[in-house]
User: Which sequence fits this backbone?
């Protein structure tokens, strides 16, 4: 079983951000297998139906979740520094459940998945675009794994 | 006089992050002229001479600074949410001094420039790579300008 999973709705549209995701994912996978599940997006709904979009996407993301320790990225979450995040990740990965990070789409994360979360994590007090958030998360997971392994983080 | 300036040492090396910088800079400039000064980097010094590198780069960056309100990005700084950052940016841009954001290189920001700063800003409790920090800053400046202009932020 993979101990590290990342779930979000749909492929990242910005080409450069997608390239960065692939860059950090490849580095993460040098240390640790990592599943990326790009769940089905809600389609055909105008942006004003944000609640509906979030609900559909939450259900689609739930199909990719098992019994993992679920960490939802949310501005209502708690911030950590990188050293604390590295310890947190190590702890969750070493449990039998493994850990799954869940990041919302442009509409945000639906209540049903936030309620199911074991932990809410905020990466910044600033509101970052959801696609930039994904890159920040992957960069931190990579950084955490290098901290765990005691390697110098590649500049 | 340009009211908005950004200063950091050297061109961003990661190609995708550089593309994102250009993407956000172009969007910022739809609203507001913005000078980007890529100051001379310290060269030929091994990473262990971080203090020396920071000092040289601080001096090189200072050549690009006038009397602006200087905001240094620093993990010792204060975090803001995006709405507060938008108000902060508007206030500084509307003063006669204008505002300059200063971001360090891989070694960090030298004491001499931190001492000269009018404000220390932290974008996250997490340690982000200095090149990713640049993108987060530009994204926030763009977001702040859209908030000021009351435009919907392009997803």
Assistant:
């Amino acid at each position: 079983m993979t101990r590290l999973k990342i779930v979000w709705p749909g492929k990242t549209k910005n080409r450069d951000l997608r390239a960065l995701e692939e860059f950090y994912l490849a580095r993460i996978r040098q240390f640790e297998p990592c599943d990326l599940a790009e769940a089905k997006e809600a389609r055909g709904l105008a942006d004003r139906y944000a609640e509906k979009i979030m609900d559909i996407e939450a259900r689609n993301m739930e199909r990719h979740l098992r019994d993992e320790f679920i960490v939802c990225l949310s501005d209502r979450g708690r911030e950590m520094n990188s050293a604390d995040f590295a310890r947190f990740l190590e702890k969750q990965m070493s449990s039998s459940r493994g850990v799954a990070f869940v990041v919302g789409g442009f509409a945000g994360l639906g209540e049903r998945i936030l309620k199911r979360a074991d932990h809410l994590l905020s990466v910044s007090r600033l509101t970052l675009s959801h696609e930039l958030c994904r890159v920040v998360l992957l960069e931190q997971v990579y950084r955490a794994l290098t901290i765990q392994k005691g390697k110098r983080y590649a500049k």
Summary: The interface with chain A takes residues 14, 16-17, 19-20, 23, 79-82, 85, 106, 123-129, 132, 135-136, 139-140, 143, 153, 155 of chain B (CB under 8 Å). The first helix of chain B runs from residue 15 to 31. The first strand of chain B starts at residue 4 and ends at 9.
